[in-house]
Amino acid sequence: MANIATTYDDDLLIKELGYNDHFHDHHHGDKYQSGFISHYIFSMDHKVIARQFLITGIIWAIIGAAMSVVFRLQLGFPEESLAWLKPVLGKWIVIDPTGIGTLAPEFYYALVTMHGTILVFFVLTAGLSGTFSNLLIPLQLGARDMASPFLNMLSYWFFFLAGIIMFYSLFLSTGPFSGGWTAYPPLSALPQASTGSGTGMTLWLVSLTLFVVSVLLGGINYITTVLNLRTKGMSLWRMPLTIWAFFTTAIIGVLSFPVLASGFFMLMMDRGLGTSFFLSEIFIEGQALDRVGGSPVLYQHLFWFLGHPEVYIIILPAMGLVSEVLSVHARKPIFGYRAMVYSMLAIGFLSFIVWAHHMFMSGVNPFISNFFVVFTLIIAVPSAVKVFNWITTLYGGNIRLNTPMLFSIGFVSMFISGGLTGVFLGNSTIDIQMHDTYFVVAHFHIVMGVAAFFGMFAGIYHWYPKMYSRFMNETLGKIHFWGTIIGAYAIFWPMHFIGMAGVPRRYYSFDTFDAFKHFSGMNQFITIAAILVFFVQLIFVINFFYSIWKGKKMTTKNPWDATTLEWTTPIEPIHGNWPGNLPTVHRWAYDYNKDEREFVSQIVPLEEGEIGDH
Amino acid sequence: MTGLIAFLIVGLLAVIVVQIGKVSDLAARIRGEEEVAQQSNDRTAVWLVAFMVVFLVLGTASMYYFKDVMLGYGPHQSASEHGFLIDGLFHSTLIVTFIVFFITHILLFWYGYKYRMREGNKAQFISHNNTIELIWTVVPAIVLTFLVVKGLVAWNEIMPDLGPEDEYLEIEATGYQFGWDIRHPGNDGKLGTKDFRLIKPGVNTLGIDWADDKSIDDVILQDIIYLPVDTTVRVRITSKDVLHNFYLPHFRVKMDAIPGLPTYFIFKPTTTTEEYRQQLREYPEWNEPYDLTDPDSKPRWKAFEYELACAELCGKGHYSMRRVLKVVTREEYNDWLAGQESTYMTTVRGTDNDPRKGQLLDIEIKERAKELKADFANALASEDVLDKTILLKHVFYNTGSAALSDLSKYELDNLTNIMNESSNVTVELGGHTDSQGDDVSNLSLSQNRAQNVMKYLLDKGLAPNRLNYTGYGETMPIGDNGTDAGREQNRRTELRIVSQ
User: Deepest of A89, A285, A411, B130, by most Cβ within 10 A of its Cβ?
Assistant: First the structure.
């Protein structure tokens, strides 16, 4: 078998050509893995932390998705009784004298808010970037671990603490925060404006502030590791696109999250200390507030200065994972590697100067919007380049259509569909009508929700053997894929029409308006699709956990015949990643089907006259 | 119990899923893994193409099927001038994106099928191609430039504020939890200033500064917002408490309402409500009954109204902030406006909240002059002796004294003007009291009062031979002296035409 020979070659090459960093001379390695607690709980090993991020993310994803099912029931079947949810939701299900249970509007808004917060921050930021940055940065760069394993551990535990606080807020008698995941003041600043803006909002702010700490600790670590701990020969231009993606993501995160934190601090002061950063001329609950001079729009600037880069924090890692998976399973180099890197950096840079396109209709000076329209639509160019490069990567390949590959193709499809609707919304003129309608909901769910999930699934199925030394089940994976892609389009495609008809998002009920109430058929269809997709995801969850213990065992080091360094590590992961020397790198990460060779690992030295970089 | 059943169902599902996984693994092992992998790869490739075909067909068909909800393709037409710019840009963007969507999806899934793994097949080593990459960087850039330019031209036509030289109607929308207060400027076309500190629930809901003359004829609309067609409307948008958004879906109007930071949106309605209904009538779905439970109810198009909604999350009642807006012809609008009474006049004038309490407004002085003039003319025209006496309704004295109250002077000034116009008329001024107090002092009080009125008129330059005065005391009551209201009627000053 070619695989066994390769494995053998790998070890030999690393032994002969590898770089001895004297890691194994000191026996401190064992300390890390000695007891149960230090190995599985307060671990400083990046591979364990990656799995902690992933499993925490999966748990949050289930909670967040279940919330969406409940509020979709309200939207799709407003007449049906929800009394059966009373045991779970308690007082938030109001039972009328005839026994019909309805969801309280306050809690509907709390569910919508929590769904957004959880999915954006806990699942698609921590669960996606946290998992794969941790797993792949040291492994693909040839590093023993992160630059600071201790900060890395803190990063997870700050995230965990943030999660605990957010989870606790779900059970408050006044309910969790209910003012939307963007938490615009004055609604979020004034407890008298909404029940959820009381203790629920306080906990929301505390939780997300801790989350910012987690992201910053993680991000600093990722950047430092990428810059300082690359193994011998691993120049920046030899890094796989995954690493470029995580690197860019980490930089964006470190630059933008502190701005969010500053916004949060001001909001906390407005709530607790009587300042007026975001408040002015408010009359509420029969009282004129003594707060003058602030501007609610200022908060929106601070929020979206993170908020927009945030969507790239979510989608860039997915792009990186997909680029890698497409190349490995198409058995071809990624097309236009340098263009991919440049477009990623361009997207990263531009993501900082487009934030106000979320605010075209927020009362900012319309003249300023001109710039934001231009920059926003410029982003479409590097995005288009990436799409064309992915498609061309498939061209002339020898494609293994396994689950990770299917999810990667699905990702590209979703990214196209969702990206194109962005061309409508980025143009401020069309945004006058489309802003805050279901068209926006459809757009961002497809382009950064579903697409990011597809990238994440591709990554999980592809690197699962690296995480658990076993495979996930292929048949279940394919059922998962087809159920998800069909279901996701069934949910979000019709939403475009509802949005074009003008139906605003965040409506508890559409019956008040003649213009909005005639889409009950479509809303029912969407709800049914959402429920089915939810159950399809449970197939993934079962597959994931079952395979940890019972999945097909990994018998070779490099099951995908991939070129990158993580596949030269032992099947059973060890502390320090490589048993002896560190591998040295001689070529870029995409030598597939080059000169009659099926693939050439990065550790293989160049032959005479061969080019190692492209 | 429910919990147990739910738990069992989830458990059962898990078992089924695990079994599917096991069976597929076993089957693969029996039939040989490589062969199964190859077959499965082929099958998946076919499914990819099938998915693509179904997806593109359903996608296109759904756009055709739902064209009636798409901007500008069916009944969902713009009712404002700038809305057509938006719909036009939507149309261009739709064509561009649809083409890209179609081509990229066909390539993506077709390549997935065509280049599937096959025995003996080998992938090509293609790392990059600068020419082709340049093309697909430049082409999107050009197409996007086209869309950006088109978009920004429209944007800069729609959004800039109006100048003082422009003619427009300005109304004000104030959002609150959970509704809208709409203020119309009245005849002067100007909205009065307001201050959130002046807000008093039930008394001054908007915090309007009643001391501002511009506020006097402002109208807070109670139910329906009327706008004239083909008139530029500037909506001043504010909020009392949290963020709201002034959203008129049919007019393509949307702007946040922010406490402390007034915003605006300018639009020109081009279609009256009635015209829009006639447009809708052409479409079968608009001929369905309005009330689905009652097949005999009127068709939907007849019940159609333009609606105002909130499009910025503002709390638990966010979904219920509806107001109806009616666009009517100029004439209908003028009629409607003539029938509106200003909020100041109906709810504030004369109350403790009125900064002009105890003062007369210009409009009130004019109103009184008109009334007095009419009474005077009637008296001149009448043959009946009884009709020759008219009541000076607005002449009053300080309590218990004969001195004229300040506000009486307006009435007497008006009287002077009237007398100057009819120079032949001579009159007698008559003072009257109620029956309280002793007769003698009442008589002298009434004489003094009437004399004071005459003195005032003489000071104003009327000839002494045209004026006379008499005090009647309590002798000629016109109301019941047993009641307060009656006594009030009896305390009066009259004017009798002696000769003309």
Answer: A411
Pick B89's closest partner by Cβ from A363, A394, A430. Answer: A430
The answer to whether the beta carbons of residues A567 and A604 sit under 8 Å apart is no
Provide the pLDDT for residue A479: 95
Please name the CATH architecture into which domain B169-348 falls: Sandwich (2.60)
- Pairwise CB contact (< 8 Å): B241 & A283: yes
Of A235, A248, A268, whose CA–CA distance to A309 is shortest? A248
Q: Do B148 and A427 touch (CB under 8 A)?
A: yes
- CA dist B458 and B447 (Å) reads 16
Angle formed at CA A358 by CA A353 and CA A363, multiple of 5 degrees: 105
> Per the CB < 8 Å rule, is A509 touching B44?
no
Nearest-neighbour CA in chain A from B360: distance (Å): 31
Residue among A425, A429, A510 with most chain B CBs within 10 A, to mutate:
A429
Residues of A in contact with B25 (CB under 8 A): 473, 475, 552
Chain A CB contacts of B291 under 8 Å are none
**pTM to 2 decimal places:** 0.91
Residue A1: pLDDT over 60: no
Identity of residue B447: Q
Give chain A's mean pLDDT: 92
How large is the average pLDDT for residues B352-370?
Answer: 82
Provide CB contacts within 8 A for B304, sequence distance 6+. A514, B273, B276, B277, B280, B286
Least CB–CB distance from B144: residue in A377, A479, A513: A377
Q: In this structure, which topology does domain A2-281+289-599 adopt according to CATH?
A: Cytochrome C Oxidase; Chain A (1.20.210)
A410 within 8 A of A481, measured Cβ to Cβ: yes
Is the sign of the CA dihedral A59, A196, A206, A452 positive or negative?
A: positive
Mean pLDDT confidence for A108-114: 96
CATH architecture of the domain covering B362-499: 2-Layer Sandwich (3.30)
Minimum mean pLDDT range among A398-412, B5-19, B201-215, B248-262: B5-19
Our separate counts of H helices and E strands in chain B read 12, 14
- A 179-208 residues with CB < 8 A to B: 179-180, 184, 186-187, 190, 193-195
Structure tokens, A111: 């569910």
Which of B55, B71, B125 lies closest to A500 in CB terms?
B71
Q: What is the mean pLDDT of chain B?
A: 89
- Does pLDDT of A4 surpass 50? no
Q: Identify the CA nearest to A562 among candidates A230, A244, A144, A136.
A: A136
pLDDT greater at residue B491 or residue A161: A161
Domain edges within chain B: 15-117, 169-348, 362-499
Chain A positions touching B300 (Cβ under 8 A) are 514
Option in B201, B207, B304 nearest A514 (CB)? B304
At A165 the pLDDT is: 97
Q: Do A504 and B70 touch (CB under 8 A)?
A: no
Cβ-proximal residues to A203 (8 Å cutoff; 6+ apart), any chain: A165, A166, A168, A169, A172, A176, A177
Do A35 and A599 contact (CB within 8 A), yes or no?
no
- Closest to A115 measured CA to CA, from A462, A532, A559, A441: A441
Q: What is the mean pLDDT of residues B37-60?
A: 93
Instruction: Give kind and range of the element (H or E) at residue A228.
Output: helix A199-228
Domain boundaries, chain A: 2-281+289-599
Q: What is the pLDDT of residue B348?
A: 87
Instruction: Please name the residue of chain A whose CA is at the shortest distance from the CA of residue B128.
Output: A336
Which has more pLDDT, A96 or B109? B109
Max mean pLDDT among B48-52, B161-165, B364-368 falls in B48-52
A32: pLDDT confidence band, cut at 50, 70 and 90?
Answer: low
How many Cα atoms are found within 13 Å in the side-chain-facing hemisphere of B177?
20
Q: What pLDDT is attached to residue A5?
A: 47
- A2 has a pLDDT exceeding 50: no
